[in-house]
Every structure is written in C-alpha cells, then in structure tokens.
C-alpha cells in the first residue's frame, strides 16, 4: 500500500485584511484564566474566528484542555497530568487566577463549538507531545463522532497542531477528516518532517521577519500551504502579521486584535507602523535576526528528542502501510503500487551533529513549558 497525493496544488493568494482570521491563544487569556471555558467564551464574544487550545490525557484516559504537562503553574493541583486520574482528583482542581475556573474537558469545548451560534469558529488543537497519540486520538475521535453531522459541521473546523512527526500516522488513522498543521519555530524541521503531510504550518512570528522567513512564506503560498503565526500581542507585530496576508494570527489579546483589524479595514493607513517604528521595528528584537534562528532549531530539536512520549532521534514519517482514509472507519484502502522513481525523495533526518553548537539564552515560552522538568533549555520570550 502507498499514499498517493491526488489533489492538485492550489496556490494561495495573499489575503486582504478583512480575510485574516484572529485565533484566541488559549482563549482570551490576556485577562482570563487560560484554557478555560470562560476564556474560550470570552474570545468568541470578542470576535475571534478561532480558538487555540491544548490537550493532555489523564491516567484514566480523559482528555483535558490544558497547556502544561503539569498542573502546578496555573492551578491548585500538583504534578503530572498523565499520572493522575480525572475522577476524584483533577476534577476538583481549580485555577489560581480569578475568576476561579475548573479545567475543561475536550468534550465540553466541542459542545461549546457545536452550539448554533458558534459553528463558524475554528478549533486549533495543540497536541502536546508528552501524550501517546494512540491513547489521545482515539478518545478525541470518539467524542467527535458522537455528533451525527461531525463530518460536515465539525471536522472541517478542527486543526490538529502537531509538534512531532510521530503524531502524523495516528492523525491519519484516527482523525483523518481533521486538518493537520505543524506547530514550531524551525523551517528546516518543517521541510524535513512535515511538508508533505500537513496543509499548514503554525510558526513562531519572529521566523517570518527574516528574508528566509519571507521566502518560506512565498514558497508555502505557491504550494497551497497555509501559514498562521503565534503568539502576537504587540500592536506593531499585529500590523506586520496582517501585512503578510496570512491565514490567521494567534493572540492572547483578541479584542485588541479585532479592533486593530477593523481600524485598518476602515482606514488602510492604519496598517503602517507608527513613527520611527517604520525604520526601527525590523531591528527591535534579537528574535527577528536570522542569526538567532539556528538556536531556535537546536532548541526545538532538543525538546522533540527528549520530551516526546517516545524519546529519541527524529525520523521521516513512513506512511507506506497506512493508506489515505476518508473516515475513521475506513483505515485500509488499497491503492495502486507506484513506481519508486515517481516518488518524491525522502528528506534526510536532521542530526544534532549538523547544528552549530550553542545554547539559547532566552527562547520560546511554549517550548519552555513543553520541556517541563528540563531546566535551562529555554528562557521566557519578551512580551
């Protein structure tokens, strides 16, 4: 069996401001407890087009909307989620930030998005790599499949955000009707492991500030690959992201982004950076410099190799024994054998020996939390 891409490439045009979406990063997390129903509801009320949230599975198989692998940072709970049950333990945990909220279940967020007034909202799920997808994805599939019209009204709105290539085959197997995006901050990792298997890439904003980043954006457009950026809370970064004409901007400040977008629609002059920022902004952060991006690459590789549920060196995805499926019930569909000479070459895996030595002095917040107990891999991104 083999997987054969049959859909022709449809280039993506640069979007106008009115068509660029706002996705609430962990909901409206700038002013409400992150990844809670209150935060998700507020983001929708403030005008977001999508919700970005994270999933972890408990020891008894319950899927939660939660970012960190541990409960400590944002709640009254302690310790790893995957070693504790929902029933009788995590169900009683509450946020430390007010208004005090419980941790929401995946099924509760799905129910919120299936309300008639919310059926326009996209759900971008950050699938945390500490979880075994063979446990996580079947339960998500079970919950989604409870809705009779899931194939038309729900699955097209769900994006599986994948950090690690080991999650690609299970995504095809259990959630084939959901879209797949890679989340990360390294263009070489995209090219080596995700390009052929994802229809979009959710990238760290500073990557696209460089010439290489802009070339990557154009390459994605020509090849029909969507681009979103995270996490954009600065007004000038919002303007820059809008000017790129990408699919969506992930932000904690939903209301601020929606207001800026509307201001630009009303008067396109508002897209211009104010004052001296027109000249200084591209040089205003070390994160925008191309010289910093190899450090991002090394950092992401470090985390992917050590923090994944199955640690080890990364390898290109092999889908030869898993055919493309159109539903969760049709996992095996025979296809014609394709001559090897017609297949695109498999990229060589990235090895740490090929990366310049160096440590990240400050880095990306999301992967700092992804790393969990590993100290010193990453610092906190400047706000």
Give a quick account of the main beta sheet: strands, pairing sense, barrel closure.
8 strands, parallel, barrel
Query: How many beta-strand segments?
Result: 9
Q: Going across the major beta sheet, what is the strand order?
A: 1-2-4-5-6-7-8-9
SSE run: EHEEHEHHEHEHEHEHEHHHH
Helix content: 25-40%
Unreliable segments (pLDDT under 50, ≥5 consecutive)? 1-5, 324-383
Number of helices: 12
Radius of gyration: 20 Å
Cα shape: globular
Structural class: alpha/beta
How widely separated are the two ends? 48 Å
In terms of quaternary structure, the protein is: single chain
Percent strand: 5-15%
Report the mean per-residue pLDDT as an integer: 87
Pfam family, one: GDPD
Domain GP-PDE: 20-261
Protein name: GP-PDE domain-containing protein
Organism: Kwoniella shivajii
Notes on the structure:
Residues 20-261 form the GP-PDE domain. This is GP-PDE domain-containing protein. It comes from Kwoniella shivajii. InterPro entries: GP_PDE_dom, PLC-like_Pdiesterase_TIM-brl. It is a single chain. With 383 residues, the protein is α/β, with parallel strands linked by helices. An eight-stranded parallel barrel has the order 1-2-4-5-6-7-8-9, surrounded by six helices. The radius of gyration is 20 Å and the shape is globular. The longest helix is centred in the C-terminal third of the chain and has 15 residues, at 293-307. It contains twelve helices and nine strands. The termini are far apart. Helix 8 (235-243) links the parallel strand 8 and strand 9 (248-251). Helices cover 28% and strands 12% of the residues.
